[in-house]
Amino acid sequence: VFFVILIVFILVAVKLSSSMSKKAMVPIQLTFKQQQQFLADASHELRTPLSIMNTSLDVIELENGDAMTPYAKEVVTDMKEEIGRMSRMVQDLLMLARSDAGSVEFEMRAFDMVPKLRQWVLAFEGVAQKKAIALRTMLPETLTVKGDPERLKQLVYILLDNAIKYTPEAGRVDIGLDPNPRQWRIIVRDSGIGIAEADQPRIFDRFYRVEKHRSREEGSAGLGLAIAKQIVIAHRGSVVLESAPGKGSTFSVEFRV
Ligand code: ADP
């Protein structure tokens, strides 16, 4: 009797699971364009709850301030950090989804790159100082280029952020501008951990990180260089990477006018 019950039970379980999996397997036919739109919409919609959560935590901190235990304070700080990380990720995903769908607007215009670059580098002085990294610029007097200043700023931020992030304390980060008017280049060089040859073609892929655990600690998702690549492509440029483990990395972005 026991075996009969067992066999009936197994048969019912198999039947149930196969009918359940059949139901779950019915594919929804989405076109590629619909999938792109879905990702763009999802990223866009995620921004609102994230910013509400952030504001709510601000209110909790404000209203409870001193009454909070050190543990509660720590939890709130951690949550805010995670929300910040997720917001950046959602922002990056949105940028990539829009760029895939061809809906990122690039506002190309002529402007002097030199003062802009000086200003952008200034934003990194603080983080560089914290790690005792010497952040130096080698810039010409002036260089008029054609491009979208906001997007080029994003590109420089991604490269500088990585250069500082992947360079140990007391290292060096140099940013230069090669003013050859037909092929101007932005060069970001660091004395950091470097990138093995096998990883070099892959670091521009979405979500690719060389050392998953290490970069996770640094709060990165592996989307920065994928965005950088899209910005470079939109400017009809190209990136050359020279790097070796322990010898630092040099990213040269070349733009043909
Ligand atoms: P992340 O947000 O992880 O920095 P990126 O797309 O910007 O994502 O970079 C992808 C991976 O490439 C990084 O996780 C890191 O492993 C590697 N990488 C990028 N820039 C550098 C650099 N300057 N030095 C060493 N490794 C780097």
UniProtKB/TrEMBL annotation:
Residue ranges of every copy of the Histidine kinase domain listed in the record: 41-257
Keywords assigned: ATP-binding, Kinase, Membrane, Nucleotide-binding, Phosphoprotein, Transferase, Transmembrane, Transmembrane helix, Two-component regulatory system
EC annotation from Swiss-Prot or TrEMBL: 2.7.13.3
Subcellular location: Membrane
Class of enzymatic activity (EC top level): transferase
Reactions mediated catalytically: ATP + protein L-histidine = ADP + protein N-phospho-L-histidine
Superkingdom of this protein's organism: Bacteria
A molecular function GO annotation: kinase activity
Transmembrane annotation, as ranges: 1-14
Keyword Cell wall biogenesis/degradation included in the entry's annotation: no
Protein's UniProt name: histidine kinase
Organism whose genome encodes this protein: Paenibacillus glycinis
Shown residues within the full chain: 180 to 436 of 436
